[in-house]
Amino acid sequence: MISKFFKLATVVFLAMAVAGGCQKADEGKTAPKPAPATKAEAGHDAHHGGCLNAIELCAVGHAEVKVEGGTLRCWLVGGENETGKSVRVPDAEIRLTVKLESGEEKPLVLAAKPIAVADEKAGDCSYFEGAADWLKGAAKFQATGTVHFKGQVRKIQIRYPEGFDPDDDAPGGGAPAGK
């Protein structure tokens, strides 16, 4: 009887430790990190090293984006704490309108790049990328577009590099000062 109690207590303890939040495994072992810029960064992990942008609502899903040189990489992932889970879409491309810091608007097309090891294919893909020379010098921008996500055409709003969380823009939301 005591053995069963200790096994149950161990399972409960481990479950509570895992469910405790979206902290990275190495947190606490290194110097403290600066406060995140958005709730998306505060509550969820960007598994590819990019910034998370909620697709309409955090609960719906995210577009994780990362700029490398002149290439914008975009992973479509789950909502809430499921940012490590890919969400496949039927789109062959995602068309964005990118507004640079200068106010200039540029079109950018992200093409589907199926992940072979995940058995993705065109029309059933979670990863997209697009390239443009002007991205090389773009330290900050906003972009908008649409994607067929979880059975509906949904708006994408990207804020790079800080990420987008609609709760930050709501009255009384958690937008940091100066944003």
Structure notes:
With 179 residues, the protein is an alpha+beta fold. It has a single domain (39-169), classed as Sandwich (Immunoglobulin-like). It has three helices and eight strands; from the N terminus they run ααββββββββα. The chain has helices spanning 2-18, 39-43, 166-169, and strands at 51-55, 57-68, 71-77, 93-100, 105-112, 127-131, 141-149, 152-160. The chain has an eight-stranded antiparallel sheet with strand order 1-2-3-6-5-4-7-8, with no helix packed on it. The protein is globular.
Jot down its keywords.
Immunoglobulin-like, 8-stranded antiparallel sheet, 179 residues, 15% helix, disordered C terminus, alpha+beta
SSE layout and pairing:
Blueprint lengths: L1 H17 L20 H5 L7 E5 L1 E12 L2 E7 L15 E8 L4 E8 L14 E5 L9 E9 L2 E9 L5 H4 L10
Antiparallel strand pairs: 1-2, 2-3, 3-6, 4-5, 4-7, 5-6, 7-8
Could you give the order of the helices and strands? HHEEEEEEEEH
Our count of helices gives: 3
Distance between the termini: 57 Å
Shape: globular
Q: Bin the helical content.
A: 10-25%
Tell me what portion of residues adopts beta-strand conformation.
Answer: 35-45%
Number of strands: 8
Main β sheet profile: 8 strands, antiparallel
CATH architecture, by name, is Sandwich
Q: Over all CA atoms, what is the radius of gyration?
A: 19 Å
Estimated structural class: alpha+beta
**Order of strands side by side in the largest beta sheet?**
1-2-3-6-5-4-7-8
Q: Report the uncertain regions.
A: 8-42, 170-179
